[in-house]
Amino acid sequence: MAKIVKRKDAPKLETVAGRHGEILMAGEKCMMMINTIDPGLPTPPHSHPHEQIGYLQEGEGDLYIGDEKIHIKAQCSFVAPGGVSHNFDATGDKPAVLIECFAPPREDYLECVKKDAKKK
Fold first, then answer.
1. CA distance linking residue 37 with residue 52, whole number of Å
2. What pLDDT digit, counting tens, does each position of 29-82 carry?
3. Has residue 74 been placed in a domain?
4. Residue 119 has pLDDT above 90, yes or no
5. Does residue 100 sit within a domain?
6. What's the total number of domains in the chain?
7. What is the pLDDT of residue 81?
8. In 8-67, at which residue ranges do the beta strands (DSSP E only) sit?
9. Domain range spanning residue 99?
């Protein structure tokens, strides 16, 4: 059975300060979300067991994966393997918009939006 979610109805969360996420869809084996990242607010390096594929739709920034630092601009995609330290810092004068997929789904993010939904 098909499941459709309009972006305006997507669960929202702040993953870290200055990084606003919207979970567009979560299935059994993968999850897709949009993250809007304010420029000038560094994202702490982190790792998780999930493979992460990202596509920078708007903006630009510095992408760190392992020991590499790469400056990317809109229309670039990347993969961060599970268990490898990574982060993305938006640069420039406007927020960066990242479309990201995680496999398997980020249970921590899903739990966060469930808790927020119960509060409402």
1. 17
2. 999 999 999 999 888 899 999 999 999 999 999 999 999 999 999 999 999 999
3. yes
4. no
5. yes
6. 1
7. 97
8. 12-16, 19-26, 31-37, 51-58, 60-65
9. 23-78+91-119
pLDDT at 120: 67
- CA 21 to each of CA 34, 55, 70, 90, 113: distance values in angstroms, whole numbers, following the listed order: 6, 14, 23, 14, 10
Q: What is the mean pLDDT of the chain?
A: 94
CA dist list (Å): 111 to 24, 59, 96, 101: 15, 29, 25, 17
For residues 9-21, average pLDDT: 90
Neighbours of 2 (CB within 10 A): 3
- The answer to whether residue 115 sits within a structural domain is yes
> Phi, psi (5° rounding) for residue 17?
-55, 130
Please provide residue 105's backbone torsions phi and psi, each rounded to the nearest 5 degrees: -60, 150
Query: Residue 5 domain-assigned?
Result: no
What CATH number is given to the structural domain containing 47?
A: 2.60.120.10
